[in-house]
Design a protein that fits this description.
Number of helices: 18
Largest sheet: 9 strands, mixed
Radius of gyration: 30 Å
Helix content: 25-40%
Structural class: alpha/beta
Mean pLDDT: 84
Strand content: 15-25%
Number of strands: 22
Shape: elongated
Strand order of the largest sheet: 5-4-6-7-3-8-9-10-11
Low-confidence stretches: 1-14, 478-505, 513-531
Distance between the termini: 43 Å
Length: 531
């Protein structure tokens, strides 16, 4: 995936920049490392420093036809390092020793001090015609310094030498203070961290300093995969300035359910985002799939992005209620993307979703169903990021002219309407609420539109049914706004006289209960019912 596909307004690597090739690092650095610059890379053991540096070297050889020198100071042997790296796809042993040269400087610094080490570096970089130099184990070099000033002078001389040779330099050390002496001298400081947050082990990258250029500040998620290191910039900063290229002429995107589409004045406005809220079993997933299938009938491409039900189960569930999902999945009109129940990273999920949509930009009037928002919430390492994350994600979807329906799950059997992700209701244009009503030992499903910006909509509460024939939304209930308390429950009676009431034209028990809720302010006998 190219850097331009990650979103945001990236500064392309031009003349004088050395692209790292590490996914999205160049986006964070607004183009890459500066040619001839000296940079400090620090972090704890196991943080990924060795992988980072070797991946940088191999990518530099691949993309720039460069030459690299990797010098070590009292760390693991070169043979062991190569053995550990050989399982990663970026590492190519055939580059050794002509293009990627490993050399130890420990004996030289031990025997001849910094002057001997600098001479070894100068001679090796010149003979190997190196354009990238890595020194791994700076904390070992510092141990041979007679004073902090001597170490400072060594770092300064090394920086001057590399700059004179036009060689970009990376100095690696274990955890250091940001105020450490070498960090004040170098052109940039990058930190890799590896820590436990609750039960999760989380790797992150932070750029603390980068002279002469803007960069993305703060912590960014890091994954180490079989392909090496992958960095995920925070979504709210990566997509902080979405392009203003949404369509001006908006159309209505219906669910294929006539009465619901009437309530929505013809459907959802194209390019908008809708929150579909409800307790487990209220029909959120089926309603979202109906939205995708209706779009496929009209020739609009749809994407399902979900966390809980694998595609075969999803297709079976839809077909059982008359939603012909399978045929549109087979012909490519609808794509099903399922995230297995593993430990995910929130920004990685957003990138996967948005990059997939960008690859479909030639398709018009696309639809997206995210099932559900709690999947992003569970992947968040820092929960306080959720509001900014959702705002950035929905803005980016609007800029792509994608009409989105996103579910969020309410708690079961709660008398109050407590949103698990309150921020979702603020960043979407439309909110549709699905609730339960318990009456005469039966469960009824109720649907209402709570909010719809810049559009007319029906505020009435309606019953809807799910059967093998599909989803059916009934006519409006009379004055049922108080039912939203979720506490209406009618006990007693065995249903006798139903035929007589029908004959006389009297209202049935459900409508009577709703009228009673209106009169009593939502306080029925027997306690609360489920949503």
């Amino acid at each position: 995936m190219s850097e331009s596909e990650t979103g945001g307004s990236e500064e392309q690597a031009g003349e004088g920049r050395v692209k790292s090739g590490i996914p999205r690092l160049d986006f964070i650095l607004k183009g890459g490392l500066k040619q001839g610059g000296t940079y400090a890379l620090m972090g704890p053991p196991g943080g990924g420093k060795t992988i980072f540096a070797n991946q940088l070297c191999c990518n530099h050889i691949d993309n720039s036809d460069g030459r690299c020198v990797y010098m070590t100071l009292l760390i693991e042997s070169h043979a062991k390092m190569v053995a550990h790296l050989s399982g990663l796809s970026f590492f190519k042993p055939e580059y050794i020793p002509d293009r990627l040269y490993y050399v130890s400087g420990y004996q030289m610094v031990r025997d001849e001090g910094f002057s001997g080490l600098l001479e070894l570096i100068r001679r090796t970089l010149r003979d190997r015609r190196a354009s990238l130099f890595v020194m791994d184990g700076m904390e070992s070099a510092e141990q041979f310094a007679t004073s902090p000033q001597a170490y400072r002078e060594f770092v300064h001389s090394l920086q001057a030498l590399a700059n004179m040779l036009g060689c970009t330099t990376l100095l690696i050390s274990n955890v250091r203070e940001r105020s450490h002496v070498e960090n004040a001298l170098v052109d940039g400081v990058i930190e890799l961290s590896d820590k436990l947050i609750g039960p999760r082990a989380v790797r992150e990258l932070t750029v603390h300093k980068f002279r002469g250029s803007d960069y993305l500040r703060g912590r960014h998620e890091v994954e180490i995969t079989d392909d090496g290191m992958v960095i995920h910039p925070r979504t709210e900063i990566q997509f902080s300035k979405p392009p203003e290229n949404a369509r001006e002429q908006r159309v209505r995107m219906g669910f294929g359910l006539p009465r619901l589409d009437e309530m929505l004045d013809g459907g959802l406005p194209s390019g908008s985002t809708t929150a579909l809220l409800g307790s487990p079993g209220t029909g959120k997933t089926l309603l979202g799939l109906s939205f995708l299938v209706e779009g496929a009938r009209q020739g609009q491409h749809g994407t399902y992005f979900g966390f809980y039900e694998p595609p075969p189960r999803l297709i079976e569930k839809a077909e059982d209620v008359g939603i012909p999902l399978e045929r549109y999945v087979k012909d490519g009109s609808i794509e099903l993307i399922w995230q297995p129940p593993l430990e995910h990273f929130m920004d990685s999920l957003a990138e996967q979703l948005l990059e997939g949509l960008k690859s479909q930009e030639q398709k018009e009037r696309r639809r997206l169903f995210i099932d559900g928002a709690e999947g992003f919430r569970a992947a968040a390492v820092y929960p306080d990021r959720i509001p900014r994350f959702l705002s950035a994600l929905t803005n980016q979807l609007r800029s792509l002219d994608v009409t989105t329906v996103m579910t969020d799950e309410l708690e079961l059997f709660q008398p109050q309407l407590n949103l698990p992700t309150p921020e979702l209701a603020n960043v979407v244009e439309t909110v549709i609420l699905l609730r339960y009503l318990e009456l005469r030992s039966q469960i009824y499903r109720l649907l209402s539109i709570m909010k719809m910006r810049e559009s007319r909509y029906d505020t009435s509460l309606r019953e809807f049914r799910i059967s093998r024939e599909g989803i059916d939304v009934a006519d409006s209930f009379e004055s049922a706004e108080s039912i939203l308390s979720g506490q209406a429950r009618l006990r007693g009676g065995n249903g006798d006289g139903k035929a007589a009431r029908k004959k006389k034209g009297e209202p049935g028990p459900l409508k009577k209960a709703l009228k009673k809720v209106r009169r009593t302010g939502g306080k029925g006998r027997g306690g609360g019912g489920g949503r």
